[in-house]
Amino acid sequence: MRKRLLALLLALAMTASLAACGSRQAPAEEEEPDMETAEPEQDAGTEETDGGEPADDAIQPDTVDINDGKADPQPELGSRPADPAVKAEGGNLPADTAQKPQSQPVQKPETLPAEKPVDKPADSESAPTADLAAFYETLSAGENWPAMMQANGEVLDAFYPGLSDISTNQCAVYTAMISAAVGEIALVEVQSASDVQKVKDIFQARVDYQVGDDENPGGAWYPETIEGWKTGSRIVSNGNFVMLAALSDGADDVVNSFNALFG
Question: Which pLDDT tens digit goes with each residue over 44-59?
Answer without folding.
Answer: 444 444 444 444 444 4
